[in-house]
Write a structure and sequence with these properties.
Strand content: 25-35%
Subcellular location: Nucleus
Main location: nucleus
Mean pLDDT: 74
Protein name: UV-damaged DNA-binding protein 2
Low-confidence stretches: 1-83, 143-169, 513-522, 531-576
GO molecular function: damaged DNA binding; zinc ion binding
Family: Belongs to the WD repeat DDB2/WDR76 family.
Distance between the termini: 28 Å
Oligomer: single chain
Number of helices: 5
Largest sheet: 6 strands, mixed
Length: 576
Amino acid sequence: MAAPARARFVHNRSRRRADEDDSDDEDQRRQDASSSSSDDDGGEEEEEEMEVEGSDEEEEEAVADEPAARESPAAAGRGGRKGPITISLKKVCKVCKKTGHEAGFKGAVYIDCPMKPCFLCKMPGHTTLTCPHRVAMEHGVIPAPRRNTNTSLDYVFQSQVKGKISMVKPRFLVPNQLECGNIKFHQRRVTCLEFHPTRNNVLLSGDKKGLLGIWDYVKLHEKITYDSVHSCILNSMKFDTANDGVLYTASSDGTISSTDLDTGIGAPLLNLNPDGWSGPSTWRMIYGMDLNTEKGLLLVADSFGFLYLLDRRSKERIGQPILIHKKGSKVTGLHCNPAQPEVLLSSGNDHFARIWDTRKLDPKSALASLAHGRVVNSGYFSPRSGNKIMTTCQDNRIRVWDYIFGNLESPSREIVHSHDFNRHLTPFKAEWDPKDYSETVAVIGRYISENYNGVALHPIDFIDTSTGKLLAEVMDPDITTISPVNKLHPQDDILATGSSRSIFIWKPKNDVDDPTEERTSQKVKEYVYGSGSRKKPNGKHDNSSDDDSDGGGGKSKKAKKTRFTHTAKGKGKSKA
DNA sequence: AACATATGGAGCC
DNA sequence: TGGCTCCCCTATGT
């Protein structure tokens, strides 16, 4: 529901302002109390710097006669006037190493370094605390003119295709309440999630180690994991809709695997590193994969810019690999147009998203090249008509093209949203709500935190991509980690979230239970499965390296089935 | 409580 | 082009 969520947001925003003031006061007090060594998280050695301060802007000055200070150029600049030399004991900013300010968390509020461009919109002159896109999220849209090309193609589109897009907003329920507990069986961070297309309550999850989990989120004990399908990052999963017992998986180990979900038998479909590891400059990783169900064609892209076509039955490659992004750069994603499966959207590390006709492919044959400010994490056609494109870019902008047959030179909208790249996080990807006939609602996790009741939380945002308005922000006081992986159920009002190693299932809050918010005292139960603790059965630590780049090519692809039973235990984390 | 560490991209030379 | 350094609202284990 838009209205309540909005109200909550405003409320939180005003609370944040109050906190800012608080922390400023705190800052003052602490600095008045002077040389306290309140250096928070170590790292920088020079915790305090003695420095002669010529300017009188500084309030926290102390009188001293430090000989070293007298020799400093700043002192000389004072014209040799004898008298008390003022020096100040100041903190060094961890970000820019300059003095006079500090950056970092003050309680639940993060203070930006004023010397850096805004962490949200990347523009200089302000910080995230004062960024217009943060203060008023609904105005975070950089407008672009609606361009009608007025070509015959556009006319055909307007009359024929546009009618398919429902202009009536469907009932929209935000799955904002944690349904089942904190599911922990992945040993590494979750990298992808997919709902089973036909089997109710079944979710598939992949992690950085390559572990594939298939489990029922209603009957939590019904869980299977496959730990030998892939040897490192599971980047993408696709169901064969012609045979939904088969799952295709793409991995940074350079292989595509097909797994029969009933028998657990896995078969490699493609291995781009048949000769094994011989250094990072030759190791091919697969991030992008999609399936053209009409043609039975598997489309795969590697980390060197090449696209491969694969017949899913014969498992044979069709033609030669085609360079679709800058040579040597990673293709981050592929998506076949849901209405016209031969139309392909690719996104890449070369700051471009490109549209292709897979029937006539050659490196220069892109139907369109969509320029971005930085690496494009993902690009998706809208789920029903396929006539919109939404991309997530590392420049903290979600871009939307409303009409793929129109003028694609610049996006219809750019929505400023915090989803920065961080090497330790799975890249953020804004995804359409597959249930939304109007093709406007998107979901994406948020990087920067907001202060909610003294706790810094990173919500999952529901965005109206036609206006940039924040429809809802989903969060829970017990989830303090960032949630970069989010998947909306194709039919039900359910959201699955991957946050670090945990998985969460959200459902709409029951309308019956009122504003009393009895949820607050209720802690999230943690379901730790047998292998969840990174410890080997013998009690020794799993010291196997996190290195993604070890062999893997020669590994047997026989899927190993493991069953676990869950142990539910209450979690008593106390939050301020 | 203070560490170490996994790790990708940008920007420099 | 390649090799190096920095980035600096991560999460977790020791």
